[in-house]
Here is the input.
Amino acid sequence: MNVSTELKLTDKKINPTAMRILVLESLLKQKSAASLTDIEKSLQPADRITIYRTLKTFVEKGLIHVIDDGTGSPKYAICAAGCDEGQHHDLHVHFNCIVCKETFCLPNSKIPEVLLPDDFTSIEMNLVVKGICRQCKK
Here is the structure.
C-alpha cells in the first residue's frame, strides 16, 4: 500500500479500504481517463458493483470527475486541486481520440464562459474535442 494514496483518500474524508486504495492506484496509473470496464479489467477479479460504488464515492467527495465523451461509457479521471465534496472546479476541456478511443483531460484548456439568459441556471458543463491524439498522429 502506498502511503500517499491512503493520504489522498483521508484528505477527502474517504475511509481507505483495500478496494478504494486499489481503485485509486489504478486511476493514478492511467495516462488517460478510464471507464468502469477499464478499471475492472485492471483489478480482476474485483467485483464490478464494488468498483462502481467506489467510483461514485470518489466523485461525490471531489477526488475524481466523470467525463461524458460521447462514447456512451462514462470515463473517470483524477480531479484537479480544489475540488471538494459536491464541488468540482476542474472545468477544463477533454479530448477524445477517434483512433485509439482514449479520452484525455486538458487542464490548461479551460471551458470558455457561456453567457446564459437571466432565467437559465447552469448546473454542469462539458466540452469534448474529438480528433487524433499525439500518439496516434505519429
